[in-house]
Amino acid sequence: MKLAQRLSWVLALVCLTAFCASTETPSNDGPRVVRMHISQDPASLSLIGKTDLNSEIFGMRLTDALVQYDEKLTIRPLLAESWEFSEADKTITFRLRDNVRWHDGEPVTSADVVFTINKLREPETENLPWAPALDKLVKLENPDERTVIATYSEIKPDALDAWRTPILPEHVAGQDEDLFNGRFVEHPIGCGPFKFVHYIRGQEIVMEANDDYWGGRPAIDRLELKIFADQQTAYQAMMTGDLHIMVMAANLWEQARESERAAAFEFTSFKRYSVYILGWNQNNNPFFGDPRVRRAMVLALDRESFIENVAGGMAHVGATTFPPSSDWVAPDVEPYGYDPDESRRLLTEAGWVDSDGDGVREKDGLRLAFTLMVPKSSQQLTSWIADWEQQSWLDIGADVSVEQLEWQTLRERRKDRDFHVLAQTLQFTNPDMFDLYHSTATDRYNFWGNDDPEIDRLLHAVRYTFDPDRRLAEMHRAQRWLHEQEPVTAVFFFDAPLIYDKRLRGVRPSPLGYAASIHGPRDWRWSDDAG
User: Regarding the domain with residue range 274-494, which homologous superfamily does it belong to in the CATH classification?
Assistant: First the structure.
């Protein structure tokens, strides 16, 4: 579908959508409830296994990690009241808080930490966010109930990041032979600010305030994670008071700002360290082994026009996967612009030509016909992007099919390298992109088969260099290489349009989201004053 046609569709959707607004408000006499939106069922309620964004949102409410980021991405203490970081000894020594209890009343001890870390490092746990960052951990000791000593063969400046993993109760989770099919995932318990009540697949996860939370009881009584796979349905729920807070598509956010209920909401947007990428499979793939072909695909995309006309201006073009709003980005690396003529020239130079005049290029008898694999999403924007990319690539001589898959199926296909080009969203907490591009990380996030000694050297330097100036210089060199080779395309860094009930206080968005920092729902509260 042409961009102009897509824009007309978006405008028609905005003009035609209707809703029945409710004046429902949290009762002063009844329980203080916050209903927040998640887009799909969590991959697992195990807290550490097969983790995805929605399971992390749930897990951070249910249980605590040793440390966590604040809204400025500064590491703060949680279960660990303090720690000692020794670059010379390659150790981190954590001192746990005293008198912290699990939701069933049992004490939290250092043995729970050791159990959790050992469990998440098991391959069958499939923990990609934290386990790879612990690959240099050679010894984990708990000399007493409040002390944990982690010893590494090689330690990195961002080593604390991995200790954001949620801690599990050994006396419950340790009784299950299978982390994904046992007593614990049926009724998970933690030591966090909220306790698990029930989970109805496809509908909601309900949690209640933990009266015995070491950090003080939350100001809200109940937190309900409402599952809406469709953004339009979630928007309707927001308008009728069935949701209190959500990030929504830019066009719906603008529609809400112009609605009759606009005065009841707070509207803001924030920049996330997340990027919508295209990963070009180079694993024995006949299409994308040549960097000229990968660059040609990027040059065929009029990203600035898409941002202006479809994304409501709430996005930024990426040069590499290093977030442009971060302090890590190289100022001399500019994103590729829209240049279809140069795109066609590169394809011809790489040997892809339309010899039979059918509009599709060929090389050695093979047509430039490949599949774009995308996750099904609650945001229709995902489909719009795929349609736009498909049309843009057809204009330069590529015949592209779009395959939309449920997230769990896509994960399996990605793991098996069964794709041509993959679209998905990635999120970063620090500049260490070793697992995304290093040749030894093909069992982690390097699904595209990137393999180059120079980028390997640069990524190792970024990961293990403590001198901040030298480390930043290596980051910039890595970005120049990535921009030239384009193994992964940073298509868009989207802003997050956030809407929430004006009486809900304590919301502090961060580059990780509005509920992903140390504060989040545990610090939210209702106010009777809507001003």
Answer: Dipeptide-binding Protein; Domain 3 (3.10.105.10)
